[in-house]
Amino acid sequence: MITLSGSLLLTFRELWAMRLTQAMFAVATLAWLLLSFALNMDVVEGSLAAIRIFGFDTSPTEAVRDAATGEWVQQAVSLDNFMIGINTFVVGAAYFLGTMLGLFATMPLVGGFLEQGRIDLVLSKPLSRPRLLLGHLIGVWITVLVLAAYLIGGVWLSMALKTGMWIPRVLWAIPIITVMFAVMYSVILFFGVSTRSSGLGLVIAYGLVFISVILASHQAMLPVLSPAAAFVFQGFYHALPNFAEVVQILAQLVAEEPVTSWYPLTSSLLFGGVLHALAFLWFVKRDF
Amino acid sequence: MPPIIDIRGLDKTYRSAFRRRPIHALRGVDLTIEPGEIVGVLGPNGAGKTTLLKILLGIVAPTAGTAHLLGQVAGDPGARRRLGYLPENHRFPPYLTARQTLDVYGRMADLDTPTRKERIPRLLEDVGLASWEDTRVGKFSKGMMQRLGLAQALLNLPELVVLDEPTDGVDPVGRRDIRDRLRALKQAGTTVLINSHLLSEIELVCDRVIVLHKGRIIRSGSIDDVARQNTGWRIQLTRLEPGFDASSFGASVDESGHALVLDSGDPSVLNRLIDALRASDHVILGVERHRSSLEAGFIDLITGQEASA
């Protein structure tokens, strides 16, 4: 256990020494301080009569269909919708931007971990290779979990205290963001271990995020593709991580709607699991 | 007492999809090192020295053969529990202080908190870094990094210390300190395996050397054994008369111009040379055994191997 704590401590210190990690914590702090102190709301009969941001007033409205006349009319935004909007924005930004920045921030960590002169030093310690790699991974995962909890938990708490509306399902975003980060990090880890180029892993991870945006439109795409192309498209859809489609799960959770399909998350988890297993196998077998 | 290191028929071949020819780094290496020995590993670049050390540490897997370390199979984490290692060109995370570095690597060496608290300040004191304990290692010179590396290797009071170029980049005073440290280790019964290009350093501290060439051990023995491959005689004269042909006896004139160095250790050749010198009215002041340095012996050994190949 002491040996594992050494590996964990090294990862935490390395991450904390990075300016980008510190910057991400600073941005998270800024986000919930902004919502706590710079945002004031006047709620009248469950609707937002006015919002004051940094002392400037605004009266947000939304278009709704009048039940009596059937016409679209502008009316004050309901507090429910406003909360869903704020939470969806924060969770969506944390998911996409946070994961992309997180991958960028942690990429040098794999390179540094495998650097000649450092890896042979840690491999000479009485620590098995799987345990060493596990210590590294747990360190990265815990840091991302803390960062996600700090941002989303802080925003959630701040908004709940301000409005009295407690929406606990928002907090599901914390583990989902963490596991999806782990799935994408497995790409960097695998290519880092097998080719000693974590930069290549980062490029491929970003490429997979881009491809997932295309794969997310599979329902619209499949009818217009030829049978062969549709088969290939389906193959990619099931084999690759569905990073972009997972955001729909997050949005449904935040809106307290039933989740229509967990498949994008479970298939992504399977992809991450397989890539992690391959990275471990390679790390155990290879010469350094 | 069982040997600290026991290697039998060790082979290592590096293969790569991008390389047409495999690289045979080690070929049938047999080696036994007894407790308490300080052994130097010599060899030209690419001889397989670092591969040999890395196989012992489990960093590289052998292609064939067996290697046992402290009674356990090399590569077993349990064997590394009683081992200290200083790699060549090691890199410590630059954001850690000297004390934090030893703390992190001490944890990885499975040392509990009280042990780390007791040993870290003492080791920093021993290697002359006590006043730098809270300085980030990114600001350290190469020599200071080597000293910190040595402290790291000794944290777990190892029975075997493996040092790859330990004096690389260290100033003369620092080198002397490291030599003293190695002698202290020997007195404490610790076995030390050193890989170094500085043969003068090896000569000063090692009991035994092994010479690797193209993946094979071509010589193993004491410093004298390796250096004495070229042992001959030195004849001190008042002056050397012009025209005397020393080369016909296999002798050469030394830098002073007043002595002849005979490469052959054969007494009959020495006597014939002395007879010739006296016949040509030379005054002989003295005759002594001449031993070449380890470096000269090593170069002769490698050159001889290259020539016979």
Give the helix/strand layout.
The complex is a heterodimer of chains A (288) and B (309).
Chain A: H1 2-17, H2 19-38, E1 39-44, E2 47-53, E3 56-58, E4 61-65, E5 72-76, H3 79-113, H4 119-123, H5 129-163, H6 173-195, H7 198-215, H8 218-221, H9 227-239, H10 246-254, H11 263-285
Antiparallel strand pairs in A: 1-2, 2-3, 4-5
Helix pairs in contact in A: 1-5, 2-5, 3-5, 3-6, 3-7, 3-10, 5-6, 6-7, 6-11
Chain B: E1 5-14, E2 23-33, E3 38-42, H1 49-57, E4 64-69, E5 72-73, H2 77-80, E6 83-86, H3 98-108, H4 113-126, H5 142-154, E7 160-164, H6 172-187, E8 191-195, H7 199-205, E9 208-213, E10 216-222, H8 223-227, E11 232-237, E12 251-253, E13 259-262, H9 267-279, E14 284-290, H10 294-308
Parallel strand pairs in B: 3-8, 3-9, 6-7, 7-8
Antiparallel strand pairs in B: 1-2, 1-4, 4-5, 9-10, 11-13, 11-14, 12-13
Structural account:
Chain A is mainly α. Chain A has one domain (2-285). Chain A is built from 11 helices and 5 strands. In chain A, the strands form 2 sheets. In chain A, strands 1-2-3 form a 3-stranded antiparallel β-sheet. In chain A, a hairpin with a 2-residue loop joins strand 2 and strand 3 (56-58). In chain A, helix 2 (19-38) runs parallel beside helix 5. The longest helix of chain A is centred in the middle third of the chain and has 35 residues, at 79-113. Chain A is flat. Chain A starts with a helix and ends with a helix. Chain B has 2 domains: 5-226, P-loop containing nucleotide triphosphate hydrolases (Rossmann fold), CATH 3.40.50.300; 232-290, 2-Layer Sandwich (Alpha-Beta Plaits). Helix content of chain B is 35%, strand content 26%. Chain B contains 10 helices and 14 strands. Chain B has helices spanning 49-57, 77-80, 98-108, 113-126, 142-154, 172-187, 199-205, 223-227, 267-279, 294-308; strands at 5-14, 23-33, 38-42, 64-69, 72-73, 83-86, 160-164, 191-195, 208-213, 216-222, 232-237, 251-253, 259-262, 284-290. In chain B, strand 4 (64-69) and strand 5 (72-73) form a beta hairpin. The longest helix of chain B has 16 residues, at 172-187. The mean pLDDT of chain B is 88.
